[in-house]
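Question: what's this shape?

___
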Amino acid sequence: MIIANKHIEQPDYNTAGEFAQYLNAAYELKPGEYARFIESFQVTSNDNSIKTYYPFEYTTFKVEQNSRSAFVGEIEIKTD
């Protein structure tokens, strides 16, 4: 999770890396305690099929002053 911001003018991206850079710049969390909840996410395969996963993962984490990133845990997804 990225917790530091960077000024961006307009979201313009063509790749996942460019989109990640946009997200890194778009969100800023102030120091304090937070909760993270992942209700669902989608994975698109090479054949354009889409699979939705529902991990319902909940974790709390703390943002320290002058932090640029934080590890908030990991999830394991078992696929068919």
Q: What stands out?
A: The mean pLDDT is 78. The longest strand covers residues 32-38. Residues 31-67 form one domain. The beta strands are 32-38, 41-44, 50-53, 57-63.
